[in-house]
Specification:
It is a single chain. The protein is α/β, with parallel strands linked by helices. The chain folds into two domains: about 150 residues, TIM Barrel (Alpha-Beta Barrel); about 35 residues, no CATH class. It contains nine helices and nine strands. The strands form three sheets. It has a four-stranded parallel β-sheet with strand order 4-7-8-9, covered by helices on one side. Strands 1-2-3 form a three-stranded parallel β-sheet, covered by helices on one side. The protein has a two-stranded antiparallel ribbon with strand order 5-6. Helix 1 links the parallel strand 1 and strand 2. Helix 3 runs parallel beside helix 5 and helix 6 crosses helix 7. It is globular.
């Protein structure tokens, strides 16, 4: 089992890079950051410096979205980082939350998410992709490899994940919810003729190490309390659509 860290791109960026370096030193396999350009600093610039300062960790967003970033630019960014640093990136993607809502928008449709996954993955793996009425390809990216991991919550998004994703990102830590969502993803993969075990599973939730005292546990709760607000919009959308 791999264990990664998720960092906020709060200034100074040098601190984020230093934390990523420490994460690698202590054996973490992945370094993720949020991708919400109005709330935090630009992650892809920071990725280039993290990758330059490390040698092994895989780096990527948790998660980007198809609405605020052009799909071909996203693919080009990953392919360029892969060329520079030896294929150590991963693309986490979802329908869009804080990055989209901060601009007054709404999460993209699942159809748009599916299309964006195909375009980004094909281009960043050196293959051609259909964008509108045009077929495009990066002539310089033949050695780039990129997996696309999808963040999903609702039944239809979980089904899409099982059908097309290289990995599944669940930003919740409840064991029952994790078991149910992972089961839905694997069932969808099997129905699509894929090997369910080929899909990487990433359960992402805050953790805080305490001294074991009651005061320490209470402090940990306060430090992790913000996380509910991060995924709350997605949960509210699901409840509104499917009922409580």
């Amino acid at each position: 089992m791999d264990i990664g860290v998720v960092l906020q791109c709060n200034p100074p960026a040098s601190r984020v890079i230093d934390l990523a370096r420490q994460a690698e030193t202590h054996g973490f396999s992945h370094v993720w950051t949020f991708d919400s350009h109005l709330l935090w600093q630009e992650p892809y610039v920071i990725y280039s410096q993290i990758l330059a300062a490390t040698r092994r960790v895989t780096v990527g967003p948790m998660v980007t979205n198809p609405a605020t970033r052009d799909w071909t630019v996203t693919a080009s960014t990953f392919a360029t980082l892969n060329d520079m640093f030896g294929n150590r990136t991963v693309c986490g993607i979802g329908r869009g939350d804080s990055a989209v809502r901060a601009l007054g928008g709404k999460p993209t449709t699942l159809a748009s998410l599916r299309d964006s996954i195909e375009v980004i993955r094909n281009l960043a793996n050196g293959r051609s992709a259909r964008v509108g009425e045009t077929t495009v390809q990066f002539p310089w990216a033949e050695h780039s490899t990129l997996e696309v991991w999808v963040a999903a919550y609702g039944p239809k998004a979980l089904e899409l994940t099982g059908q097309v994703a290289d990995g599944f990102i669940l930003q919740l830590a409840d064991p029952d919810i994790a078991a149910w969502t992972i089961g839905r993803v694997r069932a969808a993969a099997e129905q699509a003729g894929r090997d369910p075990d080929s899909i990487s599973i990433c359960v992402a939730a805050p953790a805080y190490v305490t001294d074991g005292t009651e005061a320490g546990v209470e402090h940990a709760r306060d430090q992790c309390r913000w996380f509910g607000g991060m995924v709350g919009n997605h949960v509210a959308d699901i409840v509104a659509r499917y009922g409580g």
